[in-house]
Amino acid sequence: MCGIFAYSGDENAPTLLINGLRNLEYRGYDSAWLIAINKNGEYIYERAVGRVSNLATNIEKKCKEWNIFNTGIAHTRWATHWWVTKLNSHPHHSQNNRFFIVHNGIIENYKELKKELESKKYTFYSDTDTEIIANLIQDEFEIDLKTTIEKIIKKLVWAYALVAIDTKNPNEIIGVKLGSPMIVWTSENWVFISSDINALSQVAKEFTILEDFEFVVIKDKHFSIFSSWEKIEKKSQEINSEELKSELGSFEYYTEKEIFDIPEVIENVFSGRINFAEKKIVNETLLELNEYEIERVEIIASWSSYFAGQVGTYYFKDLAWIPASITISSEFLCDNFILDKKALYIFLSQSWETADVRESLKIVKEKGWLTFWIVNVVGSSIARLADMGLFCHAGVEIGVASTKNVIAQISILLLMSMSMGLKRNLQYSEARFLIEEIELLNNAINKVLSQEKKIQEIAKKYAHYSHFFFLWRNLLYPVAWEASLKLKELSYIHSEAYSTWELKHWPLALVWPEFPCIVINPKGTFYHKNISNIKEIQARNGKILGIITEKNQEADLYDDTIEIPEISERLSPFPILTALYLFSYYVAKDLWREIDKPRNLAKSVTVE
Ligand code: F6R
């Protein structure tokens, strides 16, 4: 949520800042701004409401006239306070125009701080909490920028990542963070700061992640890190840029590309963790996990990750015979959860910095109970906080709506429950059978993807409806929820998901020809029960799109069908989600939505 970027080096900062912002744009796309400064303290700034491309157009015109401005900070905004206007865009400056800052986060006590400054005759040009920080710096300035920021952050309540420059000391950039992420990239000729790894992974190799309350001071291409006023040495890490590469190729949208990446993701998750020749799970982390006495699994996650986690709870109960439950992370923080030292707490987060997941993890960590992460981004703060975990290896996901990452999360949860099951009651023959099926899973996924034209035609037929129900029960219930979320998020069409069993309790009241139901009904345990529910919908003139197993003799029961290959019930979430992701994508495309960047959203939710 909000992307911040900074540069100090020999080259012209504006062009580099724009490139960095483009890579961070999925963190927020309400407005963008940058300031660049030269060694004499002369500076230029530019801002634009909307996309980074708007800012780039303004900058390109001006760049020709400008000399080298070799230091700069930039920001792409997801509005937390007030309207999306030019004045509310970053970077914000102090009243005396001396201090400029970019900020990712929320300052909860901004009202009191503003009042305090107003009583000292400060006036404000924007509605943002960020401008307050700039004026606090002016008000409390002493010795230098770093000393001043050290002093003022004690007054700020809640999360932030702040980068600031003092135009009277143009060669210096100061960064500090609490909660929100900050990464420092280095080489001989430059230093960059960015909000996440994706911003520079194709350009830079070495990076250092700042921990809470650590400061970075950049001076003339060199940087130092401070913790509690002491200069500290931190080991830099290296990045595998191949893993973070994402090229659109012939696809129109990243979301489409990422749906078509699903077979590769499945391959990445399982290969190296399963020895398919010997039909064995060979992952060391999972073997280590089996050394713990675990009596219960509690998963904590938010939205798409929550639904992936909910599929996981079925797997843990089914394959490992272990009680498993899931809690939405924001509620975990609010409620009085009874923590249990024999439980394994699993934290799922695809983007890596979701504030409510991170804060929930801290609570469990403080108790000393066993924590496990499943994240996609190497170096993420969630990954650094928990006891052990597994990376999704889903590659970069640029589309704000998560697709391939959800599939990766479900895959890992399946693997974990098989591994934990083998320590308990799961028969080796059953695990072996499942491994054989996993090996063939991509045939089913590819078969679904090859139906893209048909799914597109069906999506076209359904795109004009304003409401949908997604219906199923048991393991596919969270799949229905996830599919419904994707439709809402990508197309802005209202939809809800229920168990078919629920229909008579009340959802039937909304069913009529203009309120279609998508019934997920592949062959399996609940097939016939669902048929009865389908009849109930039809008796009310409800329209039904069925997601059914191929060669189903009763296909004519449905108004339309999307067929998935025959596969075991346990693995059915994979092809079904793939089919429904494509459906939502094509509905959104038919409605001319901005698919990769749904309105009002951002990829990582770093603030409460
Ligand atoms: C929906 C979506 C979001 C995320 C949620 C949690 O497509 O992507 O709803 O699932 O914000 O994000 P992570 O998984 O990064 O913690």
Distance between the termini: 11 Å
What Rg, in angstroms, do the CA atoms define?
26 Å
How many domain modules? 3
DSSP summary: helix tally? 18
- What's the CATH architecture of the largest domain? 4-Layer Sandwich
Uncertain spans, ≥5 residues at pLDDT below 50? Answer: none
Strand content: 15-25%
What do the pLDDT scores average to? 89
Q: Please state the overall shape, judged from the principal axes of the Cα atoms.
A: globular
CATH hierarchy, class of the largest domain: Alpha Beta
Instruction: Give the % helix.
Output: 25-40%
- Structural category is alpha/beta
What binds here, in terms of ligands, is: fructose -6-phosphate
Oligomer: single chain
**Biggest β-sheet strands, sense, barrel:** 8 strands, antiparallel
Number of strands: 27
In CATH terms, the superfamily of the largest domain is Aminohydrolase, N-terminal nucleophile (Ntn) domain
CATH topology of the largest domain: Glutamine Phosphoribosylpyrophosphate, subunit 1, domain 1
Give me the side-by-side strand order of the main sheet.
Answer: 3-2-4-1-10-9-11-15
